[in-house]
Amino acid sequence: MKKDSVTIGMDLGDQNHIVVVLDETGEEIALESIPNTEYSLKKFFSRYQNPTVALEAGTHSPWISRLLHRHSTPDGHVQGIHDQLCGHSITQGPTDNPA
After folding, report:
1. Is residue 91 in some structural domain?
2. Is residue 2 part of a domain?
3. What pLDDT, on a 0 to 100 scale, did the predictor assign at position 86?
4. Which residues contact 99 (CB under 8 A, 6 or more apart)?
5. What percent of the chain lies above the pLDDT cut of 90?
6. Which helix (H) or strand (E) holds 43?
7. Domain that holds residue 24
8. Which of 16, 25, 68, 82 stands 20 to 30 A from 44 (CA)?
9. What is the pLDDT of residues 3-27, one digit of tens each?
10. What pLDDT was estimated at residue 77?
């Protein structure tokens, strides 16, 4: 079951990221370390529907931001990641265009 109305904070690292998930009341519902790979990020985000995501600004934030934007709806919500992991087609959301 996907969880709605969560906020995900990410402390980015070279090998692993620390992620904390908060519910709509601000209560911590998950704290995890995930590997710094596209697959691991897609797998992690497939559990959540329409999360608000706060990324640390750093070396890895540009590509992670682009990954999340590629799988987001016009209002910025992440979508389609689970379907891509399962090998199905996805609806592409907007992409960021770095200046």
Report:
1. no
2. no
3. 35
4. none
5. 34
6. helix 38-45
7. 7-85
8. 25
9. 668 999 999 999 999 999 999 999 9
10. 52
Domain with 35 in it: what CATH number? 3.30.420
Q: Does 19 map to a domain?
A: yes
Query: Amino acid identity, residue 80?
Result: G
Q: What six digits make up the tokens of 9?
A: 């904070």
Q: What is the rounded distance in angstroms from the CA atom of residue 43 to the CA atom of residue 36?
A: 12
C-beta of residue 26 within 8 angstroms of C-beta of residue 9: no
Q: Could you say which DSSP state residue 18 is in?
A: E
Residue from 26, 25, 72, 64 nearest 48 by CA? 72
85 is written with which tokens? 């992991």
| 61 in a structural domain | yes
Q: Token pair for residue 35?
A: 């590997």
Q: Quote the CA–CA distance of 76 and 79 in Å, as a whole number.
A: 9
Cβ atoms 43, 88 nearer than 8 A: no
